[in-house]
Amino acid sequence: MGEFLHQLASGVALGGVYAIMALALVMIYQATQLINFAQGEMAMFSTYFAWKLIDLGEPYWLAFFATVLVSFIGGVVIERLIVRPFANAPVLASVIVFIGLSLIFNALAGWLYGYSVQSFDSPFTGKPWFGAGYMSAHESGSIVVTLAVLALVYAFFRFTPLGLAMRAAAQNPVSSRLVGVRVGWMLAIGWGLAAAIGSIAGMMAAPIVYLDPNMMGGVLLYAFAGAVLGGIDNPFGAAVGGFAVGVLGNLIGAYLVGDEVKLSVALAIIIAVLVWRPSGLFGRRLVARV
Amino acid sequence: MSAPILDVKGLEAWYGPARALRGVDFEVEDGGVTAVLGANGAGKTTILRALSGLIRRSGDIRFRGRPIGALATEDVARLGVAHVPDGRGTFTDLTVEENLRLGAYVRSDRQGVREDFDRVFGFFPRLKERRRQQAGTLSGGEQQMLAIARALLMRPHLLMLDEPSFGLAPLVVAEIFRVLGEINRNEGVSLLIVEQNASLALDLADRAVLIETGRVALSGPSQAIRADDAVRRAYLGY
Asked: Range of B77's domain?
């Protein structure tokens, strides 16, 4: 029983990371109907930035918030310079751009920081805030951080004029422009936000999965499974899906298939959802009249 | 006579390579109502889209004396041109209130916005009852009211409407046109109305333009247009 609770708790902690990563994917998907395959490598690169700042002696939380800010700006710049020119390109062209971006960030990180695995300290030390005995201090802290991110993102989209304009621009760009919303900028801000919350996912994942240029590959796969499970067009569903995938992956990995093939659980979930319930648990079923 | 609020000369517009407007001239008086009439496919909707910069256009377009022919859609809107598009442009997944808040998106005068909310709820009490409802669940007439209310929250100088009567029950159409008349008379908002229902539009308008295959076939004071034999037979049906 203790072992089970332990697996459950660490599943929830990892699931939180998947949840905010899934949220980053959904934010861009809602506006463009595209999955940003570079989201994981962007988050990884941000995490290296935080690691470098901490390595230079900056306090953790200063490094944390500086990284979130720089990632936001980086996301905006990437959208403006690299993604924007492909706005009207066929889907496959955009997919290739995203894959190219992810390779660039991966190589850039290896070139700048090396390919050896680095440890990344957690700001949460000592006793865990809750769940003592079943989870580490970092896991409890990570759960709090991911819940805070989810709450902030929700409040931003629900209660601020800018959040409303971003939702409107994603839904009905023409009507948005007719009331004066600068739709192009909304998309850029969306990329910035996705990069910023991705960086938080990276920094929360790094103490668990360690820091190396390929650290986010598995995380992105789980996040994608979470987004598909919850419904790729539904931020709430994606967050729930992320948590569910974290827990499921951990339990199935521990009790059924073993850690070696744990990653294939994510793929199995993706395939199962697409076969039986393509719109996900909370997604809207799209029916087109033909 | 004061200068027109909207002065359009030689307006051309394209859908891809196809030219849809071939040199259209007309004006909207400051505080006036101009009706754009014509058959399906004549280019009426295209005129509004071209003015808003939603499609490629050329020609001399002046709004309050200022050339707007090269401006992006959002900048035309920010100058005070509200466009109620065909199909109403409802944000279907958002609530009625959020739709209205978007109308006031570029405004920073909170007090004025609050007053304007009360004002449009006065025009359309049904929107107030349904303010928390998802806009996509409204009836067609209610969505048309919502689109007009959203446009009014922009505090526009010029309100452009694309077939506000389309697909609506006669009673609802009467209500909407009554409100449009009130907005024009009491608040001095100039109107540019594209309508299939010529007789309805001519009742409200002081000027009218008749469009045929992308050109102005006839224009002038609405009384003169109404009296024209060809218009009477083709568009008014008597």
From this structure: 6-91+157-236
Supply the ipTM of this predicted assembly: 0.94
Q: Quick check: A48 and A114 in contact, CB under 8 A? A: no
Instruction: Judge whether B106 lies within some domain.
Output: no
Query: Does B126 map to a domain?
Result: no
* Residue B188, both tokens: 């001095």
| Measured distance CA(A48)–CA(A64) in Å, rounded | 11
- Pairwise CA distance, residues A95 & A90, whole Å: 9
Q: What is the pLDDT of residue A228?
A: 94
As beta bridge partners, residue B221 has: B207
CATH code assigned at B184: 3.40.50.300
Q: Residue B145 and residue A127: Cα distance in Å, rounded?
A: 59
Contacts of residue A175 in chain B, CB cutoff 8 Å? 85, 89-91, 102
Q: Is B105 in Cβ contact with A177 (below 8 Å)?
A: no
Nearest CA among B86, B83, B55, B68 for reference residue B6: B68
pLDDT band at B232 (very low <50, low <70, confident <90, very high): confident
Rg (CA), chain B: 17
Confidence of residue A261 (pLDDT cuts 50, 70, 90): confident
Task: Tell me which residue has tokens 């037979």.
Answer: B233
Tens digits of residue pLDDT in A14-46: 999 999 999 999 999 988 889 999 999 999 999
pLDDT digits (tens, 9 = 90+) for A264-279: 888 999 999 999 988 8
Q: Cβ–Cβ of A174/B82 closer than 8 Å?
A: no
Looking at CA atoms only, how far is residue B38 from chain A in angstroms?
A: 24
* CA-to-CA dists, residue B206 to A68, A172, B2, B179, angstroms: 58, 34, 15, 17
Query: What SS3 state is found at A111?
Result: helix
Q: How many CB pairs under 8 A join A and B?
A: 63
* Residue A289: both structure tokens together: 């009249």
Question: Is B129 within the bounds of a domain?
Answer: no
Say if B151 falls within a structural domain: no
